[in-house]
Give the backbone structure.
Amino acid sequence: MFVAMNIKKTGFLLGAFAYAAVLFADNTRELKLSSPDGVQQVGFYQRQTAPAVNGLFYRVSFKGQPVIEESRAGLELDNRIWEMALGQRKLIQPACWMDNLEVDSVTYAPTVDNTWKPLYGERSKVRDRYNAATLHLSKKDGSFYRLDIEVRAYDEGIAFRYFFPEHPRATFHKVVGDLTEYTLPAGTKAWSEQWAQAFFITYIPMVIKHIFLYSPCFMRQQQPAYHNLPSLEHTDNCVAKMASSACDNI
């Protein structure tokens, strides 16, 4: 199972991950994380895609087999109004807000193993066991921009979110786009809905042209393995646009 969580509110749930008494900081430029049982693996890393352009990418595997192949990660921001209001008129405006971010470090936390009781459902207790790590990025242009990628590897799947640490001068961040892509292995089939309460549809990614759908997206790969792709913690309704390509990108 693959789970993606994108949080687009500055400082949202800052204390939610304050569970570890000891954190380990690694100066490497790549985050590598496995679930406690070792079945799920995820990696986040940067590589230069053009001169002075740093691309952020990730990949996910299950039992050593790719679930999400190398895919783009990130957000698009437009903070030009407050930058000008604060006298930051000379800041270089890259083609994409993510382009001039640089990885500073990776922080790893001890394994968490708790239980929680849902209000209703099939089980009276739910085990909450995962490994966690954070990829820290920042800009070196005097803008004081920082971005954290918070990642969890559960035995059941992978979760990640984008988090903006508090800015010393800004009062908000204007997020105008989610750049996260999901490159699926060839032959992946998916079942989803084009609108709420619609009938399920079946499609092969290499055949479709363009389609809008609501999460969750249920997928079957050739291993065979089944995966679910929901989007959680959104402030607005989540609609995804899927398009086929030579790489089966979503």
Observations:
- The two ends are 17 Å apart (CA to CA).
- Helices lie at 80-85.
- Residues 214 and 238 are 6 Å apart (CA to CA).
